[in-house]
């Protein structure tokens, strides 16, 4: 059951009301709701309210012609004696407070034969906050001066590219091995058997040939 103090608290939270204006808005809106509902719906609605609030709904006199939304707002304005824009705002706040406090089946009853009440009795749902975006983390550097250790991962001796041509002196571990006396197999003439000691009479290419 909804009590006056509870309803007034929700209404004050929904808008900025001066002293006494929240009670006037509640009374005017309940009267307009009672005028818009069928007699059976008024009684069912009143059962969810405390006796002082229920009496406002049950004592509302139905107009000759059924109320529409504009007529509903005009009735709140006349009862509350405020400007049309203020009356519209107050009626919406009170209806929203009722929707927050009433069971869902009671809200459905109010809109069964008065469909234009449905937008007024909708409860705003609070959308969940979006998840915080993942913080992009860069991998910790491993080759900075701050984390470096003595020595190189690739020593200079192993890191110099082999740029010497094949067969060159620079590419040999013993570049002068062929001509050194200690390691050579003799001079070029000795290896080719063209020395005086190994020579034979006659020329390989005689003048006559």
Structure in a nutshell:
With 209 residues, this protein is mainly alpha-helical. It has nine helices and no strands.
Number of strands: 0
Uncertain runs with pLDDT below 50, 5 residues or more?
131-137, 179-184
Structure class: mainly alpha
Strand fraction band? Answer: under 5%
Shape: globular
Sheet with most strands: none
Topology:
Elements: H1 4-14, H2 21-36, H3 39-46, H4 51-58, H5 69-80, H6 84-101, H7 104-112, H8 156-159, H9 188-191
Helix pairs in contact: 1-6, 2-4, 2-5, 2-6, 3-4, 5-6
Describe this structure in words.
It is a single chain. This protein has helices at residues 4-14, 21-36, 39-46, 51-58, 69-80, 84-101, 104-112, 156-159, 188-191. By secondary structure, it is mainly α. Helix 2 packs antiparallel against helix 5 and helix 2 (21-36) crosses helix 6 (84-101). The longest helix has 18 residues, at 84-101. The chain starts with a helix and ends in an 18-residue tail after the last helix. Residues 131-137 and 179-184 have low confidence and may be disordered.
């Amino acid at each position: 059951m909804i009590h006056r103090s509870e309803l007034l608290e929700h209404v004050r939270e929904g808008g900025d009301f001066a002293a006494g204006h929240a009670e006037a808005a509640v009374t005017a809106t309940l009267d307009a709701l009672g005028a818009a509902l069928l007699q059976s719906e008024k009684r069912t609605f009143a059962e969810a309210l405390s006796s002082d609030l229920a009496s406002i709904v049950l004592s509302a006199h139905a107009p000759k012609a059924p109320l529409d939304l504009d007529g509903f707002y005009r009735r709140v304005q006349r009862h509350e004696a405020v400007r049309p824009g203020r009356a519209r705002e107050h009626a919406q706040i009170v209806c929203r407070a009722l929707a927050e406090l009433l069971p869902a089946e009671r809200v459905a009853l109010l809109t069964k034969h008065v469909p234009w009440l449905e937008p007024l009795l909708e409860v705003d749902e609070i959308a969940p906050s979006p998840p915080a975006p993942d913080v992009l983390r860069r991998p910790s550097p491993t080759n900075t001066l701050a984390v470096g250790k003595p020595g190189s991962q690739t020593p200079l001796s192993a890191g110099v590219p082999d740029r010497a041509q094949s067969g060159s002196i620079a590419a040999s571990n013993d570049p002068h091995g062929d001509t050194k006396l200690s390691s050579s197999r003799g001079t070029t003439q000795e290896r080719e058997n063209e020395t005086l000691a190994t020579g034979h009479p006659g020329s390989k290419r005689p003048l006559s040939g």
